[in-house]
Design a protein that fits this description.
Number of helices: 3
Number of strands: 4
Subunit structure: Interacts with RIP1.
Family: Belongs to the complex I LYR family. MZM1 subfamily.
Subcellular location: Mitochondrion matrix
Protein name: Mitochondrial zinc maintenance protein 1, mitochondrial
Order of helices and strands: HHHEEEE
Strand order of the largest sheet: 1-2
Keywords: Chaperone, Mitochondrion, Transit peptide
Shape: flat
C-alpha cells in the first residue's frame, strides 16, 4: 500500500473510532468494510487510486465532523446524542431568513428556493 493510501486508511480508521466510539458492532463493521475496500483496490491504476484516496479522505472528514450517533434512553424514551468536540456546528443564520428566501439544496446538488417544486 502506498504512503498516501496508508495515510487515508489510517484517517478512516481514526474517524470511525471517533464516530462509533460507543457502538462496537458498527465500529467493527466499519473497520471490516474499510479493510475490504482497501484490499480490493490494492492493485488499482495510479489515477484511479488517487481518486479513491481523495474519496477516502473526504469520508474520513465526514465521519469526524458530521456524524452524530443517538442512543435511546429507555427511561425517558428520548434519544441522547453523542456530540463530540469535532462535530461541525452551524450558526443557523439561514433559519432567521424569511422562509420564502431560505435556500435549500436539491438532490442534484444545486440550490433552489423553498417555494420551488
Amino acid at each position: 500500500m502506498s504512503s498516501p493510501a496508508l495515510s487515508a486508511y489510517r484517517a478512516l480508521l481514526r474517524s470511525a473510532r471517533l464516530a462509533f466510539a460507543q457502538d462496537t458492532h458498527v465500529l467493527s463493521a466499519a473497520v471490516s468494510e474499510t479493510r475490504a475496500k482497501f484490499e480490493a483496490n490494492r492493485a488499482a491504476p495510479a489515477d484511479e487510486a488517487s481518486e479513491q484516496i481523495k474519496n477516502a479522505l473526504e469520508i474520513a472528514v465526514f465521519l469526524r465532523q458530521n456524524l452524530v450517533q443517538g442512543r435511546l434512553d429507555e427511561e425517558s424514551g428520548k434519544y441522547q446524542l453523542r456530540i463530540h468536540d469535532e462535530i461541525e456546528r452551524g450558526d443557523n443564520d439561514t433559519i432567521k431568513l424569511n422562509p420564502t428566501k431560505r435556500p435549500t439544496t436539491n438532490l442534484a446538488g444545486g440550490t433552489k428556493c423553498c417555494s420551488s417544486p
